[in-house]
Design a protein that fits this description.
Blueprint lengths: L1 H12 L1 H9 L8 H5 L9 H9 L5 E4 L4 E8 L1 E2 L2 E2 L6 E4 L9 E6 L17 E5 L4 E12 L13 E8 L5 E9 L2
Parallel strand pairs: 2-5, 6-9
Antiparallel strand pairs: 1-2, 1-7, 3-4, 5-6, 7-8, 8-10, 9-10
Length: 182
Amino acid sequence: MSATIIALLAIKIYPTKIVKNLLGEDKQKQTLAAKIAKPSPVSQNSENTSAQQELSPPTFISIPSVNINLPISPGQIVDNVWTLSDTRVSWLSTSEVPGSGNVILYGHNRTNVLGNLANISVGAEINVKTKDKVYTYLVSEKRKVTPQDVDSIISPRDQLTVYTCDGNFDEKRLIVIAYPKA
C-alpha cells in the first residue's frame, strides 16, 4: 500500500519524466511537433496570400451540448511534452487556423476544461471563434487511442480535432473529429 502511495506521489511530482519512461517516449527519435508541423506552402500567389492573411487563430470554443465554453490560448509541443493551461483550451500553434485545414485543440481532462468532452455525441455542434468569425463544426467521430498514436490527429482535411486525456491514470487519449457545417 505504501509503495503505491509513493509511486502515485512520484508521478504527481515528476509526471513528465516518469510517464515518458513508462511509455518509452524517450526512445522516439521524431518529435511530435515535427509530425504535426504545418506543411510548407507549395506556391504563393497574391490571391492565396491575401486569403491567408484574413484567417486568424482560434480564441474561444463553445460546445453547448456538453457545457464547454472556454477561451483558447496558443500551445506547443516542447521535447515531446504538450504545453497545457489549467483553465483554457490550447490551440496547437503548429496546426492550422480555422478555415485553412486541420485545427488541433487540446486541454486537460478536468471538469473546468475538457472533462465533459467524453459525453459529446456524433452530430453535436462545436463553435470556434476567431477575432473575425465563428466557425461551426459538426462532430463526426469520437474515439480513444494510446498516447503514442499521434497519427490519429494528423489530417490534410479541413477539420477540427479536439484532443484530451482519458481513462484511468490518463492512459488513453480521447479524440473528437468534427467537420465544417455546410
